[in-house]
Amino acid sequence: MQTQEVAWQSPSNIAIIKYWGKHGVQLPRNPSLSFTLSAAHTQTKLVAEPKEDTGGGISLDFYFEGQANALFSDKIKRFLSSIYAEYLPFLPNYHLTIHSQNSFPHSAGIASSASSMSALALALCQLEQKLEGQEVRDTEFYQKASVLSRLGSGSASRSVYGGVVVWGQSALVEGSSDQWAVPMLDISPVFENYQDTILIVSAGEKPVSSRAGHALMNTNRFASERFRQAQENLAALLPVLKNGDLETFVKITEEEALTLHALMMTSDPSYLLLLPDTLAIIEKVRDFRKKQGIPLCFTLDAGPNVHLLYPKTDREIVMQFIKEELYPHTQAGQWLEDQVGEGPQEML
Ligand code: PMV
Question: Taking the mean position of all CA atoms in its chain, how far away is CA 315?
Fold first, then answer.
């Protein structure tokens, strides 16, 4: 047994069809579809050293952006302790040192679970192959990485592939599963480098976590209708992704974003993550679209920040609009520029 080292860079993703509500062991109530991003990513290096005492379960040190981080260390230790027996039985034979860093500021209020959990999962899957003495990046490799990512954070399952990705079983998507995500092929070129400019409205911590939000779907009176709507929106979106019908894309994308927040408002207890500046941006985006005839639209995560989605060919006019009209609604002028990307990369 020797010390092994692996490292992966993995991006964040933005859901167009939202995953909201789960059951069992991190299984989704409806299929979701996302664009994998490129600029917002996590780099994770994993060093595995053989240890003498292998009876003590998982042992690890976690460094975030160069600093030992006890909170993240505990979280990852709990996660690995819950999955190793079934998926990575060799792990207790090693002491793990994990170094992780994000390309985006930690304080920006951007969820990092998709990029961080997928980077860790890919590193663990590569470590497993290295120890077995055969390294192949085949379908099985990415499928397992997607399963492990999902167990860490549902939306992370989609980040192991580039481009457009579906997680959750749908009769319309070949090979789709609640267990892992699958990449979509034959996408219209307009979406290949689709732009995502993320306006930071508030970088503060959310008052209600995603975990708590998913749980509230179990008692939400609109839940079953919502899960049906997601299926319908996926069915309507799939042809759009092939034919590039941006008018329908805009309609579905904004409906999904506002439905997500409507579900929060209609949860019991009810809560609200949108801020006045989020609403001001939404109004201005819709007004701009109407006046300029440019297919700029917004989507939202479980928070107040706004993702602006648009074709690369409209970049200049949209950036001018952002600088002139939307800038005052951001926190300290913070925004991040991103676009659809090719997915994770091995680093060493
Ligand atoms: O992966 P989680 O459990 O943090 O859930 C994320 C849910 C949304 O970001 C709101 C939607 C999605 O599909 O990514």
Answer: 23
320 is written with which tokens? 């001018």
CA distances from 317 to 129, 250, 253, 292, 331 (A): 47, 18, 21, 10, 22
Which of 113, 155, 196, 299, when mutated, tests ligand 1's pocket best, judged by the most ligand atoms within 8 Å of its CB?
155
Backbone angles phi, psi at 140, to 5 degrees: -60, -40
Task: Determine the 3-state secondary structure of 27 from DSSP.
Answer: strand
- Give the orientation angle of helix 246-265 with respect to helix 223-243, to 10 degrees: 160
Cβ atoms of residues 42 and 345 within 8 Å: no
Tell which residue, 244, 268, 216, 286, has the closest CA to residue 29: 216
Residues with CB under 6 A from ligand 1: 15, 18-20, 32, 113, 153-155, 210, 214, 260, 301-302
In tens, the pLDDT along 95-150 reads 999 999 999 877 676 778 999 999 999 999 999 999 999 999 999 999 999 999 99
Residue 42, beta-bridge partner list? 10, 102
**Count of alpha carbons within 13 Å of 303, Cβ hemisphere only?**
23
C-alpha of residue 161 to centroid of ligand 1, in Å: 16
Helix, strand, coil percent content, the chain, rounded in steps of 5 = 45, 25, 30
